[in-house]
Amino acid sequence: MSNMEININEYLPLRDVVFKNIRDAILSGSLKPNERLMEKELADRLGVSRTPVREALRKLELEGFIEIIPRKGAIVKQVTSKEIKDVLEIRSVLEALAAKSACLKITENEKAQLLKAKEEFENAVRSNNVDLMAQKDVEFHDIIFNATKNERLMQIINNLREQIYRYRITYLYDKKYLENIVKEHVEIYSAIVNKNVDGAEKSSMDHINNQQKAITNSLMM
Question: For residue range 70-82, what is the model confidence (pLDDT) as tens digits?
Fold first, then answer.
């Protein structure tokens, strides 16, 4: 937990500050799978009582980020290959739906934003900047989600994305997958801007299915 940075300068209830910072540390990989989360240590670092820490840990457990084990306490949850497969199986369908909808609703301004995000991801790959790759990949997909004008769809997809974020970062470090991601972004972009509904659906679904295979492979290494 020594690498975990806590930010309490937010206008939020203490339990939400604790929740957000622990969750972000898990997503970024600062807190590793199976690492123990000690209530007292977290409370001391935040300068709060153990009550908001305990409340935050309960919420993290409900959202699947940690496990609370009797007589052992809270640990960062190790996501299994099956759980990743289950999440991405759902996400592939939702991504395909979003791409189909974006084909019909995307604006010229959003097309320009999508092209820019695609190119910036490619630049990040060329410079081998993994953090920037992750950021630009999220931007690329967010533009597609926003183009659907469907807020509930965006909310569901974002929730699913957070559940496997730390594993997606891991596979971005493996260069053998990057060329395929660039190619898949090009296919998705081309299908959407040309209003190729079938192509957008297929390329988006293939993209997530390939992500699932890559993340599963990285877990087995």
Answer: 888 899 988 788 8
